Automatic annotation (TrEMBL):
Protein name stated in the entry: CheR-type methyltransferase domain-containing protein
PROSITE patterns referenced in this protein's UniProt entry, alphabetically: CHER
All residue ranges annotated as the CheR-type methyltransferase domain in the record: 1-252
SMART domains documented for this protein: MeTrc
Pfam entry (one): CheR
InterPro entries (UniProt xref): Bact_Chemotaxis_MeTrfase, CheR_C, CheR_MeTrfase, SAM-dependent_MTases_sf
Coiled-coil residues: none
Length: 279
């Protein structure tokens, strides 16, 4: 890594107690280059000086390093497999004997958690049964957690949703779309830092391990050591026969760092068992 890059990492750590060494080097370089350009600094040396003298710039850099983009049913292939394979398998094995437990790790504004709740609600209707479930959505962005708790989305955020889902699960108020209380009551939003060494699982997991953990579109922003830590944490939080889901681009990391098995050779859905692929 460039000497000034290391200096910037040190300044942030020592002067502002912000640790950016956890990020992937090329991602970090890209964001810092963007700030060099946006702040009209002549070069990285000048940007280092700027950041040392200006806490506001440190705050801006920290914020830019946390990408929070998400959307409902973000990866259609994964949600199709959730609907056809994963949820039916979990629902059948639990057989209404206990609550189904899901962790949306790095939930952003809750679109992933609410998409899952929609699928479960559709199953309830199809099977004519009540499926007790709890989704624990966690994130480090208080702004996004607040949004998730509010369950209020803008028109452009629901635009990709099937019309029948919008009509069934949202009420509109002016330009806002509000998620139904029926789904909202099953989801809790709380702060949990996946890079934190102290805790393996969110506090809510004292009630039992998870049947399904989703940790998507955040691993690739971190360096390999941190990626491994997050994946191992997720694996440890799974109950027997639990499933782990990541994004298409991140599945290779799970294969590298755990013994979880893909449910089929190309899937980014993994299963906790020793029997290998289940399809
Ligand atoms: C790009 S969004 C992806 C959201 C969703 N999982 C998806 O796939 O669409 C990444 C989210 O992970 C959160 N995140 C990043 N680092 C985290 C960490 N160390 N602990 C918990 N959440 C984190 C961010 O705040 C952001 O909301």
């Amino acid at each position: 890594m460039n000497r000034y890059m290391n200096d910037i990492i040190d300044v942030l750590k020592v002067d502002f107690d912000i640790n950016i060494s956890i990020f992937d080097e090329s991602f970090l370089t890209r964001i810092i280059n963007m700030r060099i350009s946006d702040t009209k600094s002549k070069n990285i040396k000048e940007y280092k000086k700027l950041i040392k003298e200006n806490i506001q710039e440190a705050i801006v850099l920290k914020r830019l390093l946390n990408i929070t983009y998400t959307r409902f049913f973000r990866d259609s292939l994964i949600f199709a497999q959730l609907q056809k394979i994963v949820l039916p398998s979990i629902i059948t094995s639990i057989n209404q004997q206990r609550e189904l437990r899901i962790w949306s790790a790095g939930s952003s504004g809750g679109q992933e958690a609410y998409s899952l709740a929609i699928l479960i609600s559709e199953f309830e209707e199809e099977l004519g049964i009540k499926i007790p479930y709890r989704i624990i959505a966690t994130d480090i962005s208080e702004t996004k957690l607040k949004k998730g708790r509010s369950g209020i989305f803008r028109k452009n955020e629901v635009i990709d949703l099937k019309l029948k889902y919008i009509e069934k699960y949202f009420t509109s108020r002016g330009s806002e779309y509000i998620i139904s209380e029926k789904l909202k009551k099953n989801i809790s939003f709380s702060y949990f830092d996946l890079t934190d060494d102290k805790n393996i699982k969110p506090p809510e997991s004292i009630y039992g391990d998870f049947d399904l953990v989703l940790c998507s579109n955040l691993l690739f922003y971190y360096n390999p050591e941190v990626q491994k830590k997050i994946i191992v944490k997720s694996e440890l939080s799974l109950g027997p026969n639990g499933y782990f889901i990541t994004s298409e681009a991140e599945k290779v990391l799970v294969k590298d760092f755990t013994k979880l098995k893909q449910i089929n050779p190309t899937s980014s859905i993994f299963k906790l068992n020793n029997q290998g692929a289940i399809l």
